[in-house]
Amino acid sequence: MNVRPFPDTEYAARKSAVDAAFAGQGVDAVIVLGAYNWYRDHAIRYLTGYDSPHAATVLVLAPGDGASCLIVQDPEDFERARAVSWISDLRLTDDLPQCVGDLLAGGRPVRRVGVAGGECMGFSALDVLPAALEAALHARLPELELIDVGGALLELRMIRSAAEIEKARAASRVADIGAVAFFAAARSGVSERDVWSEVTYAMEIAGAQDVHISMCRGPDSFWPHPPSDAVLRDGDIVSIELSPRVEGYFSQANRMCFVGHPAREWTELSQMAVEALEIAAAHMRPGVAAREVVAQVNDYVARSPLATMDIGGVHRIGHGCGLALDEGPFLSSSSETELRANMTMALHPIIYLPYRHSLLMLGDYIRITETGCERLSAPQSSVPVV
Question: Which helix (H) or strand (E) holds 138?
Answer without folding.
Answer: helix 131-140
